[in-house]
Amino acid sequence: MDGWIIAMMLGASTLLGAFGLWGLLWGIRSGQFDDHQKFLDGAQFDSEEALNDAVNMERKKAKVLKEKQEREVGYAPPD
Fold it and tell me: What stretches pass through the bilayer (predicted)?
C-alpha cells in the first residue's frame, strides 16, 4: 500500500472517532441519558405485594444495622 492510503485511513478513522466522542459528550451534557421518570413509573406500576416486600426488607436491614451497632459498642479488643 502507498503511504497516502494509510494516512487517509488514519485521518478518516480519527475523524469518525472524534465525531463519536463529540456525540457522546453532547448526549451526556444535554441529559439524553437521564431518566427521571424511571423510579416514579416503577413505583406506580408495582403491585402492593412488591411494595410491602420492599418495606419489610428495609425494616430488616435497619434492624440488622441496629443490632450490629449495639454489639460494637461493648466490644473491646483483647490485649
Answer: 6-28
